[in-house]
Design a protein that fits this description.
The chain has a single domain, classed as 3-Layer(aba) Sandwich (Rossmann fold). The chain has 233 residues and is α/β, with parallel strands linked by helices. InterPro entries: His_Pase_superF_clade-1 (IPR013078), His_PPase_superfam (IPR029033).
Length: 233
Amino acid sequence: MRGILCCRPAAASPSSGPILSPPCSPCRGPRGVPPARSLSVVTGVESEVSQESPAKAVVRRRLILLRHAESSWSDRSLRDHDRPLSKAGRSDAITVSRKLQQMGWIPELILSSDATRTKETLHLMREHAACFLEAKVRYVPSFYSVAAMDGQTAEHLQKAVCEYSEDEILTVMCMGHNKGWEEAASMLAGASIELKTCNAALLEASGQSWNEAFASAGLGGWKLHGIVKPESV
């Protein structure tokens, strides 16, 4: 009968004892329908294929590039590194810190030049915006010198952020000087950005780590959310 494979027992020989039958091919029912056991195997395979790993959540990382507030030139005997803030600069630092706090751009880590005008800017911001007090602070002396070098600041900032920031930290603020800060902001955002004294560029990229964020965004791939300025617009 077509469609049915059967196994017939082999004839026994009176002299040689019982003869074992060879292994049988699986019997198939009418019209070639496979047995239930085969169906259960196929179902198991489909179940395994459908179990996929869930996609990782997007981690957004914020980078604030802040130029120090206006400095004073009243004492010409001071080195450039040691110049303090002017009266206007002190007021601007307070205003910008409050604006960043209101916008929710609150740094968890602050990397700053060790120049006097930059340290004074940070001191005033922490004094008048309570949220800044929770941030870790690290002074990076090289931020002062690298800002004067053509085309060096963006890469230097990347190395500093990746070195000093843990991946759990999602917002980092770097404080420094022109021309480097303006140049770095423009290179990262892929747009011409002007940073006057106490201006802050708000940049964002995605990545499971800071290394991944810099690698995936590259130069020109950081999203510019805006420039925070002390004066009202």
